[in-house]
Structures are given as structure tokens and as C-alpha cells.
Amino acid sequence: MKTGKAKRKKIIFKQLNFQKMTNLKSKSAQSGGNLEETKSKSSQNGSTLKGVKAKSDAAQGLHDLFVDGLKDIYWAEKELTKALPKMIKNASSDSLVEALKSHLEETKMQITRLEDVFSTIGEKVAAKKCEAMAGLTKEAEAIMEDTEHGVVRDAGIISGAQKIEHYEIATYGTLASFARVLGEDEAASLLEETLNEEKAADVKLSEISDSINVDAADEDDEENEKEKEKSNKLATSTKEK
Ligand code: FE
Ligand code: FE
Ligand code: FE
Ligand code: ZN
After folding, report:
1. Which of 121, 191, 203, 219, by CA, is between 20 and 30 Å from 72?
2. Exposed/middle/buried for residue 92 (C-beta within 10 Å: 0-12, 13-18, 19+)
3. In this predicted structure, what is the pLDDT of residue 46?
4. How far does the centroid of ligand 3 lie from the alpha carbon of residue 79, in Å?
5. What is the model's pLDDT at position 103?
6. How far is ligand 1, taken at its centre, from the CA of residue 95, in Å?
7. Residue 23 has pLDDT above 80, yes or no
């Protein structure tokens, strides 16, 4: 549903963009730079950058782009209900396990909330693979494989989890903003609610990492101490011989 306000905003956006473009044109004319010159320069560099060709089912406007974004994050949240249990199973610190468990419960609620968003804007609930979240969960798994169970792996799990939270924060921030300008205030409120949960989850992980990272660094010290002792012993035993 488009309100008059949303339409008016759209017109203002268009006017602003037009002004920007005219400003750019006059600036480049002043500096003597024209489009032809830029073109020949980039071909001199061997650069073959081209505009992306839109697919036949490309978004027809901001509403469509908004719905595409909802499908993407809906897939991502579902993916997280599979990835978070793996992280929980691999974490050893109680505070980290607790934080991940509570965010898993929150994530399930966020999925239901997204279904509400789809219905408030009159769209069918649908998921579309989020390549970014697929990559982020893969990376979190790789971090676990690259560490032994313990405090260092915990530090790695937090790093992976925070990358995920930051992706979600960026996504929900954008989607809430799209909803506002489209006049979808109810959807915007729901998305902002989730945005705040993601921000809180990120803050919580930062707090936990304060002590876990120190413990992980201490483990390095202990490891170095052991190495030193070993080489000292070796040195004495060779001397005695
Ligand atoms: Fe989430
Ligand atoms: Fe995505
Ligand atoms: Fe999350
Ligand atoms: Zn989240």
C-alpha cells in the first residue's frame, strides 16, 4: 500500500538525484573531464568493467527490492537455526553456550516475525538462498575445524558469530529503512525489533569475548612456557652428556 507521503518522498528523491547528476555534469565539464576521456582512460588500463545486465525477473522498484531482501534474510535466519546448534555444541565456556542458546531461541522468533512482515505487506512467505550467510556459516565451521576444543576455539566461535551478527545488523537496518520510505510502518517496526535484538546479541558477544580472549592469550603464554622448559631441559641434558 502506497501512502501519499511515500509518493511525495519518492518525488523528492528523484529531484535530489537529478540535482546531483546535474551538479556532477557541470563539475566534470569545469575540470575539463568528459565522459569520452574517462572511457578511453579505462580502456588504456585494460579495465573491462561493464554495467551488470539485469535478469528478466529483476525488481521493478523499491518494493520488489524490499521483498527480495526479506526472502534473503528469511533463508539466512533459517540457516542459522542449523548453524547455531553446531556452534553451541562446540563452545566450552558456559557464558558463550548460554548466549548462543538464547540467541538461537531469539532466531526462531525472528523467523516467525519475518513471516508476519510478509503478511503485513501482503506478500507470500518465501526464502531465497543468501550466499553471504551460506559463506559466513561455512567460515564459522572452518574456524572450529582449525582449532582444538577449548578457549581458543571459543574465541574463534565468537569471531564467526559476530561476523554473522554484523551481516544481520546491516540487512535489518536497510530493510527497516526501505519499509519506512515505502510507508510500511508496521513492517518497519517489526524489522526494527529484530534489528535491536541483533545489536544486543553483538554487544553480548563482545562482552563475553573480553574475558575469553584474555584466557585464550593466557593459553598461548602457557604454551610458550612449556616450549621454553622443554628446550631448556634438552640443553641441560646435552651438556651433561
Ligand atoms: Fe537473526
Ligand atoms: Fe543475504
Ligand atoms: Fe544472530
Ligand atoms: Zn542474529
Report:
1. 203
2. middle
3. 63
4. 10
5. 98
6. 19
7. no
Is-above-0.85 flag for pTM? no
Element (H, E) at 203: helix 185-240
- Cα(126) to centroid of ligand 1, in Å? 16
**How would DSSP label each residue in 54-94?**
PPTT---SHHHHHHHHHHHHHHHHHHHHHHHHHHHHH---H
Q: At what angle do helices 94-120 and 185-240 cross, to 10 degrees?
A: 160
Question: What is the largest distance, in Å, between two alpha-carbon atoms of the chain?
Answer: 93
Q: What is the mean pLDDT of residues 86-115?
A: 98
- 6 CA distance to ligand 1 middle (Å): 28
- CA of residue 172 to ligand 4 center, whole Å: 10
Domain boundaries, the chain: 62-216
Q: What is the pLDDT of residues 136-147, one digit of tens each?
A: 999 999 999 999
Tell me the ligand closest to 110's alpha carbon: 1
Q: C-alpha 56: how far from its chain's center?
A: 28
How many Å lie between the centroid of ligand 3 and the Cα of residue 116?
19
Its CATH architecture, for the domain 62-216, is Up-down Bundle (1.20)
Taking the centre of ligand 1 as the mean of its atom positions, its distance from the CA of residue 208, in whole angstroms, is 19
pLDDT digits over 24-45, tens only?
444 444 444 444 444 445 455 6
Render the burial of 174-196: b for 16+ CB within 10 Å, e for the rest.
Answer: bbbebbbebbbeebbebbbebbe
